[in-house]
Structure formats: C-alpha cells, structure tokens
Amino acid sequence: MEEEIEDIKKKLKKYSQEHLLNNFENLSEEKQKRLLEQIENIDFDLIKSLYDTTQNITTEIQDDQIKPIEFFDKEKLYDDYKKYKEIGEKAIRTKKLAAVTMAGGQGTRLGHDGPKGTYDIGLESHKSLFELLSDGLKEQGKKYGVIIPWFIMTSRENNDATVDFFAKHRYFGYEKDKNIFFFKQGELPMIDTEGKILIGEDGLIKEAANGHGGIYEALVKNGMTKKMRELGVEWVFIGGVDNCLVKMVDPVLMGIAIDKNVTAAGKSVVKANPQEKVGVFCKRNGRPSVVEYTEIPKEMSEATDENGNLIYGESHILCNLFNIDAIERMGSKPLPYHIAFKKATYIDKDGNKVVPDGPNAYKFEAFLFDAFGELDDMAILRVKREEEFAPVKNATGTDSPETARELYRKFYNIK
Prior knowledge:
The protein is α/β, with parallel strands linked by helices.
C-alpha cells in the first residue's frame, strides 16, 4: 500500500489536492481503502476544467438559434389516434418496451428520512411512490399480456435502502434480476470556491450525484442496455420517481415514434404561465432541445402567437421514450455539466468540521435533455397536466404532496 500511496501523493500534488490525505492515518482500514479508490477514480483534469467554468458562469443562450418545436396534441389526433395506438400496442405486446425510473434522490425536502421513492404522499392506501408506479406498470402489463421490465436507477446514498424497501415489499410482484433491476448513477466530487475537493464528515471525498443526464452512461456502464437487449427490448421509457401520475406505458407515444421513424419522443404539458420554472422544448440550431427557465430571456418566455398561446409553451416533464440504439449512442460520450452552488458541510484541512451559513460548494450535474442535440429529430406529444403530471417536489405549495394527492384522487375518481 505504501507504494500506492506515494503514487497517489504525486498525483494529488500535481493537481494541488494534497489535503485529501491529511486525515488518512485516522481512518479505519476499510475507509482508507475506500478513499484511495475514490481518488484513483477521479478525473482530475475534468475537475479542474469544471472549476474553471465556475469562474465564468453564464446563463445566456448566446448565439444559439432557438425556434419553437412542432408537437402532436394528444387531444387533437382524431383519426391518427387509433393508428398510433395500434402501432404502439403491437410493440408492447411483443415485449419491445422497458421502463426506467430515476430514483437516486432522498426525500429531504419533503421531511422524509429515506429514498424519495419510499415516500407516502398521504393517500388512504398509504402507498409509497414506488408502489404507485408499480401499480401502473403492472396494470398495463396485464392489459397487454406481458411483464414490462422495470429498471430503477438509485444512488450510492440510497441504493441499499431502496433495495431493502423493495425486498420488504416482495418487489411489488416483480422478480429481482429477472424483470426488475437496480443500478447506481454516477457521482462527481464537490469542490469549494478555491477548486479544492471537499472531504465529508465520514472522512471520504464528498460526492454528489451527477444529475439525471447521467442516466445514459449509467445504463450502459452498468450493463442495463445489454440486459434489455437480452430481453428483446427496443424502446425504453425514462421518467422520474416523483410523478405519481406518470404513464410509463403509452402506446400512442410509442406509435408516433415508430411511425415517424424517430429514435426519441417526449411528453409535454402546456406551461402554466410565462414565469413557471420549467424547461421548454424547442429547436436549438435545428435540433431538438430544451431551454431551461434560467436561460430563456423574458421576451422569449412571454412571446405569444396570433391566438394568444405561448410560442415556447411545451414544458419538459421528464417523460421521455428512447430507442435503445439512441441510449447507447448518447451514453458513449459525456454530456456538458451544469453548475449548482450548494451548502455543504465538510472537514477542513486541519480536520475541523465546518458547517457553513450559506452556499459554499459547487456540484456538477448533467441534464438528460442536453443529449437531445445528438438526435436528428424527436416527436413531442402534448398531454394534459391533470392526467399525467403530478410531481412531488416541495413540502408545501406547488408540486407538493397535497397537490399530487388532489390530482391523483381526481384522476382515479377516489373520493
């Protein structure tokens, strides 16, 4: 180990990160081994590059050519509705569809101690978000005479608790490693305002999940796309765990994608108002994209057509369908990272615990929709918010358990 440590010290000195081993001697043998593994796996050139970007943060669209994107309105498909539905149903019945749920987060903002998917939104049934999602999958599987494989992306932080939760509930009728699979998303170190990698209270490098944009790489690196191919899967729905009305099995969405010969499709809901904090679908330099609410100029967000409708009004609700070829292609190259300035407790170079009063550290996240630029085109299907979008993000107010319960009860006619 001594020789290994000397090599690591040389590497750390090269990147001015020597402090990472300051408390090494005080760690248990198990933690020493884990810390060395963490350091070995860090791409220090990437970290340096990411830090450099924090010195010149911009939210401008700059010179990109942004235009509205065409979309299908599910309510106005008329004669085509049946055609698309039949195409999609045939694909589902022949076991071409798998579902992926991104569930790497904790329920901290909801006051919940545990993985967000284990949260009870307050229905009379006391079902967790995971169980509500599994109900929808099983119902659709029964309808089409198949079991739809379910892939769940966890994080290092919540993986064990998530798997234990599923085991406790007998995987809600699924069979582990046969038709339900768990895999972890990637992580990146957090750094302070001087570019130094943080050490957490456990003596290990403080890492944070790399955002939902890490889904493609995680599916490929963890062998999930290989497993999907073994199961005969061609299409993969990817959605978040916190939308209790998510429709992971939608033959119309599949039918449109197949009929239009595109490798991806996404669902949208009409933006509630120009100020709603959501990203919107668009065409960026001729390719599909999403403009985040933080980067869209006020005049663009408020622009309306001759009928008074928002020109950029198709909200991205994290409900997307991909051909497996597209996932593997997008998972083969890294996406750009976005910067978030967060409050993070850490151990300083002298071994003291520091609890900051405000944001003090950068974390880096990739966004799923940044990969859309790799696509020639994608189909957008506008759906009704009250039928398909009931997110649980905040403890109170908008997108809270209360609003989600109300939408869920109304949709399923629960008194």
